[in-house]
Amino acid sequence: MRAFGAVLLTVLSHADEEVSHFCDPEIFPSCDVGARVGRDAPGLWTTNATRLAVKASRSSRFLRVNGRLPPIPHDHEFLLPDEVEAEDKAIISLQAGHDASIAISVGSRIQCVLELERLFEIRYFPEAVDNFQSNWRQALEIVRDRCDCDDGPCPQEFDYGIMVGFGLRLKTHFTWLPKVVELVFRVHRWRNVNHHEAHALMGYFSSPFRSALVLSYDGGGNDGVFNVFLARGQDLWRIARKPLNLGTGYHRLASYLPQVTGASEVGLVACAALEKEGDWIDLKYSFGDTLALGFAGKLMGFSGLSAPSKEVSPWIRRFYERLEHRQNEVPRAMLEKICEGETGAREVAASIQEEFARIVREVLVDYLAELERKRVSVEGIVLTGGCALNVVVNQQVRDTLTEATSDRPNPMKPQDVYVPPAPNDSGLTVGGVWAVSPPAGPRQKLQYLGFQLFDKEVLQSAAEERGAQRLSALGGVHFLAQLLTEKTRPIVAVVRGRQEFGPRALGHRSLLAVPDSPDLRDRMNRLKFRQWYRPVAPMIAEEGLEGVFGHKSFAPSMEFAPVVLEEVRERFPALAHFDGTARHQSVSKGDEPWVHALLLAVGNRTGLPALINTSFNSRGKPIVNTVAESLKMLDELADLDYLLIEDWLFRAPAGKPAISSEIPRAAVEWFSPR
Ligand SMILES: *[C@@H]1O[C@H](CO)[C@@H](O)[C@H](O)[C@H]1NC(C)=O
Ligand SMILES: *[C@@H]1O[C@H](CO)[C@@H](O)[C@H](O)[C@H]1NC(C)=O
Ligand SMILES: *[C@@H]1O[C@H](CO)[C@@H](O)[C@H](O)[C@H]1NC(C)=O
Ligand SMILES: CC(=O)N[C@H]1CO[C@H](CO)[C@@H](O)[C@@H]1O
């Protein structure tokens, strides 16, 4: 233990140098780099800031500084020593920024997470002040009445109330939140947890690793934008904080690409600005923050269409590095390229993505080298924060900095990358819980911690009224597999069980189809009114992974984008993105037994246990969570043929507009896979 302490100190003193370099006390008054995570933040209204929440000094058992590390089970199951037991406390945790959520737990075991956007059907649930109190009160009552707890009734009284990220960027209306909570629940004491600490705790404690280098990065938090942590056993330390705002940088650059934003006026403004002089052009940002959040995913899809531009890339890199201080200055070289037209815009998109990835990799390489010098090994790399939704970067880190795809893994190197199912702000509340009560046992699976359909009471009568049939009576997954493989290749919406936690639909609120015809991707995208270049993603049973990728590429919440083997792409054209990769969900029996069985039944008929899925939502809406909205979509969406809700199979009404043959052909031909 002492040896490790000394090692850590040297790691930290290295970090201290970084602090003096980067940590500007004007920007980050709490300059706490090197501090153990989970300590009380300097909250403004947090009155009782006494206890250290994350237990110290229990990490010695997991030190393998010079020894071999045992293999890492991919299924997240391993045991921590008996004496490390989470306290049996009831905890409620809240996050009121965009992507607001509420989580409750008994000890470290999360019982449910309510993402407010799913309840109010407002994407990102922005920090609207309107009806703040009544919205939150309603959300809290839903948690009280509808959370599915492990052992029957859920706690109605909490030992801890956690507010995430309120330390320094307090908005006055947020100060009401504890009061609103106490109208619904009794809470004994309130604590405050820093934003990136919550991201890091959530990421690390849901990972299979016993030690890790953790990177949490996004567009902002009360404690910075880009933080690196070292995690061992039960402890995390923040070892660096850099003023590298990749989160804001990425969607800000995206905002100048009309192909991504759909707003051609902004493109015109950008081109007109070229009349100004200089390498850097002052250009005001033209989108609200909430709208801009949606650009990131679109840019990632769009960036796969071209190679980066050699002239523009160095400028993009400097843009990212300067952003914290020069908010509105955009490189001329980039604007010129964009104004050349479509081809230029694509190259710029590729450059934005490539430089983003390069910076992340360089930072990780630096810290891994530093740890190696200090002879501290880590089992894995954890990527979290909203930027960890960038699956292309996640995949590059997996391929280049870990042993995941190596035939003979070097035990001293990180074995793999882990990305939690809700790396963005909607996952913060889980990290908040784990600041008080870090999990000590096997890792909890987090994919399906959402809520049952909010109006499930009406399902039975709706089913009878519309003559729906019970799938179990028809033959269960085998019948569904038969339906999906019918010649017309229908699209089937599947709505079962608890909703997914996190941005990906993982078979509980999904649209499914067999990926063996090229027009399916177009039908899917049209059905969702999505841009044609956005990827559809396959779900693949564990048994099929090797056949598709050449190795077992696990990705239980679609967090990577590996390359699909050429011959598979030919047979199943809708399975891969234009760049030849797939953003897939791997499904093992332990992840979701019903979906796994369905995939195997489909595989029996098509030769590949895979379906393409897309999340069951319509334009601009969050993923559905009501019977009423699901049925409305079945009635209105031309390409949707069947809807399964729990065990009830609904057929699209007769007379609905037939499948239109109006596929964006130009797009298909123009961008067929290279
Ligand atoms: C914190 O809580 C303890 C026990 O509940 C109490 O004795 C103490 O006065 C509180 N401290 C503050 C600053 O409120
Ligand atoms: C964050 O994740 C939630 C799901 O957990 C998703 O609905 C939301 O759109 C995401 N927000 C951003 C800004 O990506
Ligand atoms: C595959 O099909 C055969 C014959 O139809 C059937 O006996 C078997 O149970 C099926 N296997 C799966 C996994 O569905
Ligand atoms: C089709 C597809 O895009 N796959 C999706 C499966 O579910 C989640 C929900 O959108 C998506 O993020 C994946 O993109």
Automatic annotation (TrEMBL):
Domain Carbamoyltransferase C-terminal positions: 489-650
Domain of life: Eukaryota
GO MF annotation list: catalytic activity
CDD domains xref list: ASKHA_NBD_NodU_CmcH-like_N
Gene3D superfamilies membership: 3.30.420.40, Carbamoyltransferase, C-terminal domain
Span of domain Carbamoyltransferase: 193-431
InterPro entries (UniProt xref): ATPase_NBD (IPR043129), Carbam_trans_C (IPR031730), Carbam_trans_C_sf (IPR038152), Carbtransf_dom (IPR003696), NodU/CmcH_Carbamoyltrnsfr (IPR051338)
UniProt region (Disordered), positions on chain: 402-422
Family: Belongs to the NodU/CmcH family.
Name listed for the protein in its UniProt record: NolO protein
Recorded name of the encoding gene: nolO
